[in-house]
Amino acid sequence: QVQLQESGPGLVKPSQTLSLTCTVSGDSIALKYYYWDWIRQPPGKGLEWMGAIYASGVTYYSPSLKSRTFISRDTSKNQFTLQLSSVTPEDTARYYCVRREYWGQGTQVTVSS
Description:
By secondary structure, the protein is an all-beta fold. The protein contains no helices and eleven strands. The chain has strands spanning about 5, 10, 20-25, 35-40, 50-55, 60, 70-75, 80-85, 95-100, 100-105, 105-110. Strands 2, 4, 5, 6, 9, 10 and 11 form a seven-stranded mixed beta sheet that branches. A hairpin with a 4-residue loop joins strand 5 (about 50-55) and strand 6. The mean pLDDT is about 95.
C-alpha cells in the first residue's frame, strides 16, 4: 500500500521560503505513470492544487503560484519536495502530498513573525 508522509517546519516567517518533504513508501516516485502532487488547504477554505512532479521528473505548477513554487525530487530517497518562496500569512495552510487517491496526513504550516 502506498503511504505518503509530509515533513517540515510548522512555523515560517514572512518573506522566507517554506520547504516541505514528502517521503513515499510502497511505490517508487520514478516508476509508472503517476503524478505526485502538492495540495494545500488554508483555514476555512477549500483545497488548492499547487503543483506536481511526474514520474519522469517533469514538473507542473499552478499558474497563480508558479513564480514562487519549486518542486523537486530525490529518487534515491523516494522523496519529493516543495519549496514556496516569499511566503506571507496567506500561505498559512495544511499542506498535503498526494498520489491520486493516496494522501499524506498533511502538515500544518503557519506563516507568522
